[in-house]
Specification:
With 145 residues, the protein is mainly beta. It has a domain at 32-124: Jelly Rolls. The protein has 2 helices and 9 strands; from the N terminus they run H-E-E-E-E-E-E-E-E-E-H. The protein has helices spanning 12-22, 117-124, and strands spanning 32-37, 40-47, 52-54, 62-68, 70-75, 78-83, 86-90, 96-100, 104-111. Strand 1 and strand 2 (40-47) form a beta hairpin.
């Protein structure tokens, strides 16, 4: 098996190149759950072991919480491996890739009273001209109310 090596401190450009390369691969269908409470929005995402995700850039400081499992996190600030329970304050403007070393559940918690998903996306996420999956926006499940 070929092992992929990555720099300990990647540039934003390297993370965006990873994102572009990943779009050429089969994509995992991951279920996102959404929660709102008193000016807060929480996004829950279960990721099976072996899943790599390149995230969007958020405009505001928020929490990233690993509630189960172990993930490797790769940002311009460096690479670290973290296991649940783990809480990280994610700074605005951070571009990150994560790789689930085990099955893992990760939450992000944002200050945002908005509940309309399109408006929420505009408030929380920086615009990006590069490639994303078609329709890759924050989406509430139809069962959400």
């Amino acid at each position: 098996m070929n092992e992929v090596t990555a720099p300990d401190r990647p540039t934003r450009e390297q993370i965006e190149r990873l994102q572009s390369a990943m779009l050429k691969l089969p994509q995992a269908a991951l279920e996102t759950k959404h929660y709102w409470a008193d000016g807060m929005y929480c996004r829950e995402l279960f990721r099976p072991a072996g899943t790599t995700i390149v995230g969007k850039v958020h405009r505001k400081e928020h929490f990233l919480i690993v509630v189960s499992g172990t993930i490797r996190v790769w940002t311009e600030a460096g690479m670290k491996t973290v296991s649940a329970p783990f809480v990280w304050v994610s700074k605005p403007g951070t571009k990150r890739a994560t790789h689930a070393l085990t099955d893992a559940t990760v939450l992000t918690v944002h200050r945002c009273a908005e509940t309309d998903m399109e408006a929420l996306e505009k408030e929380l996420v920086e615009p990006f001209d590069g490639p994303y999956l078609p329709g890759n926006t924050l989406k509430a499940l139809e069962s959400d109310s």
